[in-house]
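REQUEST FORM: STRUCTURE PREDICTION
Request ID: SP-0412
Submitted by: Lab K.M.
Chain count: 1
Length (residues): 300
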Amino acid sequence: MSLRLSTVILPYRRWSEGGRSAWVRAEQLGFHTAYTYDHLSWRSFRDGPWFGAVPTLTAAAAATDRLRLGTLVTSPNFRHPVTLAKELISLDDVSGGRLTLGIGAGGTGFDATVLGQEPWSPRERADRFAEFVPLLDRLLTEDAVTHEGRFYSAHEARNIPGCVQRPRLPFAVAATGPRGLKLAARHGQAWVTTGDPKLYENGTPEQSVEALRGQLGKLSEACAAIGRDVSDLDRILLTGFTPDRARPLESLDAFVDFAGRHRDLGFTEIVVHWPIPDSDFAADGKVFERIALEAPAQLD
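STATUS: Completed
RESULT:
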């Protein structure tokens, strides 16, 4: 399988002031998928403009024809499976079946407390995620669902006519721990990682590659435990959070070298951030477009 190249477009610009044009240009450049972050605010962007993921993706669906669309990632921090399922079915319909749901357990950032709750412990996040994903799976594949869970309930939740994509839109499950990897193996059509966060500040690219090799090995074990071949899952690396940081986007050759090393590890999709001036995702726009247009052929 050829390595896919995708991008993530952060929702920080008004649709009329560069928001729309980025999604249209992503399709023109041939990206496989354009994702966005599903947060209510995020890190250094907290005190500036930031728009909702689902409305943004709905507008992007109307502005494009071929580009796949998705979240990296949606989490239980401020989502409920019943309402999320309804929005996803609607968005899958508007996009003509071009939606992928990136989904993760969430973290301790602004989303974790914005509704007034205390941040959940790692164990509670894992517990909630373990209930959230199977329930969402049911809601997207069954016409009516009733569920009484520890964290989430549904009473005759109707989701007719269901997704355009059958049996449902694909899940790209972000996980590195054993419980999350089991969910990816059982419910995912793809798996997502950003690498080992402990290596970001002081690690080396070589250490990052070895850490990713270990994560891929654990994913293979989780799949094998339920009789699934790991090759059934797409394996997605969201870049920008490894010790390489923005260096792969400094030139076409640098990117091809970076992407080739990770393709050889077993990744099937590399996701790069759309350039944002004066941020951690700053990059030369001309170089970025050259990478989008020329790198895929060099990575076949």
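NOTES: The first helix runs from residue 19 to 28.
Reviewed by: T.R.
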